[in-house]
């Protein structure tokens, strides 16, 4: 059956401007790192993506290596575009990235022009797209001149493969250099994609200041610390969880001390009538430099819960200090 998105899709979502650019992103975006690969149930991913779009999530984030197997999330997303979203391409912001290992040999990872351009072409082919909206350098490459990596992003934009350029997980100094090179090339760096959640606050030590100075946007990944900042692991590791699948969330990292903190945070969330997942997502949006919180979801309910969190975005001084105390 043809997919008809909800008429109400733009009624309640919040759209934030990305730095000083002309484009806005939804306060909550959906990432396809997990749950959209060829090891997953296609129909589940399809239901999640449709519901996300129905709720005003216009931004879908991918990378060359998402799956598993690597590339399969882009292939499945391509199938979703063909089956469901093709008529709505102009309502969507689709991103991809290159930086991590994708194919064997010296040209299959890091930051050379050779790798980035070839990988972008492969991503477009897998997704069946003429262009992506944002193309990222997925990680800083210490062995390639930054001029070459940024030159490749500039070329990718100028050649029509992408509309905007972005960088991911670059430190403040690398970010400032990347922004300067891209500005001089005439393709401003639109956005940075760093990890940020209550357990990993590295961006507060200089990166957010740099982004403000450079007028760049920021989309933060893993706002739920891969599911840890929910009520999921309060009583052990459930079978249907990311930690149980032994993929990217190491079960050994879920220590008593962590769970103790999560329990305290859960109580604070309850007192503000939110689930912990909801509080964790909106917590990442406190600083206005953060344009969007980039969640993952294995169930439709995860997306619905995150979007409903936008009804309570503010933190009282008491709540903020209780959170700081719980995290100590
Ligand atoms: P999250 O921190 O949001 O974790 C998502 C996972 O948490 C879900 O898959 C689910 O896992 C669990 N979860 C979500 N909502 C709930 C809920 N309400 N209750 C209980 N459990 C919940 O984000 P991700 O780590 O998935 O990262 C999001 C996106 O960020 C990626 O898809 C990718 O696009 C991007 N990313 C970018 C990186 C980069 O280097 N640039 C690196 C990593 C991610 P479960 O299976 O346990 O149900």
Q: Explain this structure to me?
A:
With 328 residues, this protein is an alpha/beta fold. It has helices at 42-54, 72-85, 113-127, 146-158, 172-185, 207-214, 256-271, 276-283, 300-308, 317-327, and strands at 15-17, 24-26, 28-31, 59-61, 93-98, 132-137, 162-168, 189-193, 217-221, 292-295. The chain has a single domain (7-253, 276-313), classed as TIM Barrel (Alpha-Beta Barrel), CATH 3.20.20. The strands form two sheets. It has an eight-stranded parallel barrel with strand order 3-4-5-6-7-8-9-10, surrounded by six helices. The chain has a two-stranded antiparallel ribbon with strand order 1-2. A hairpin with a 6-residue loop joins strand 1 and strand 2 (24-26). Helix 3 packs parallel to helix 4 and helix 4 (146-158) crosses helix 5. The chain starts with 14 loop residues before the first strand and ends with a helix.
Question: What's the short story on this structure?
Answer:
By secondary structure, this protein is an alpha/beta fold. The protein is built from ten helices and ten strands.
Q: What is the top-level CATH class?
A: Alpha Beta
Largest sheet: 8 strands, parallel, barrel
Which distinct ligands sit in these coordinates? NADPH dihydro-nicotinamide-adenine-dinucleotide phosphate
Structural class: alpha/beta
Total number of domains: 1
The coarse silhouette is globular
**Architecture (CATH level 2) name:** Alpha-Beta Barrel
Radius of gyration: 19 Å
Q: Which properties best describe this structure?
A:
328 residues, alpha/beta, 10 helices, 10 strands, binds NADPH dihydro-nicotinamide-adenine-dinucleotide phosphate
């Amino acid at each position: 059956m043809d997919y008809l998105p909800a008429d109400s899709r733009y009624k309640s979502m919040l759209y934030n401007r990305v730095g000083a650019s002309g484009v806005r992103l939804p306060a909550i975006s959906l990432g396809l790192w997990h749950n959209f690969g060829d090891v997953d149930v296609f129909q589940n991913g399809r239901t999640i993506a449709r519901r996300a779009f129905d709720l005003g999530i216009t931004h879908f984030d991918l990378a060359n290596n998402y799956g598993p197997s690597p590339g399969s999330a882009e292939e499945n997303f391509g199938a979703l575009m063909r089956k469901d979203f093709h008529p709505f391409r102009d309502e969507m912001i689709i991103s991809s990235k290159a930086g991590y290992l994708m194919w064997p040999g010296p040209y299959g990872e890091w930051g050379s022009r050779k790798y980035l351009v070839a990988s972008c072409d492969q991503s477009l082919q897998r997704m069946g797209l003429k262009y992506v909206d944002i193309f990222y350098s997925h990680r800083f490459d210490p062995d390639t001149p930054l001029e070459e990596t940024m030159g490749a992003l500039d070329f990718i934009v100028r050649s029509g493969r992408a509309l905007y350029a972005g960088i991911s997980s670059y430190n403040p100094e690398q970010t400032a250099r990347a922004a300067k090179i891209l500005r001089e090339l005439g393709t401003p760096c639109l956005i940075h994609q760093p990890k940020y959640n209550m357990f990993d606050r590295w961006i507060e030590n200089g990166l957010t200041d740099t982004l403000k100075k450079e007028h760049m946007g920021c989309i933060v990944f893993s706002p739920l610390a891969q599911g840890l900042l929910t009520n999921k692991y309060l009583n052990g590791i459930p079978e249907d969880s990311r930690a149980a699948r032994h993929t990217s969330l190491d079960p050994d990292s879920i220590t008593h001390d962590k769970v103790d903190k999560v329990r305290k945070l859960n109580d604070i969330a309850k007192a503000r009538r939110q689930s912990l997942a909801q509080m964790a997502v909106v917590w990442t949006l406190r600083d206005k430099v953060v344009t969007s919180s980039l969640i993952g979801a294995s169930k439709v309910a995860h997306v619905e819960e995150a979007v409903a969190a936008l009804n309570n975005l503010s933190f009282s001084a008491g709540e903020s200090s209780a959170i700081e105390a719980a995290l100590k």
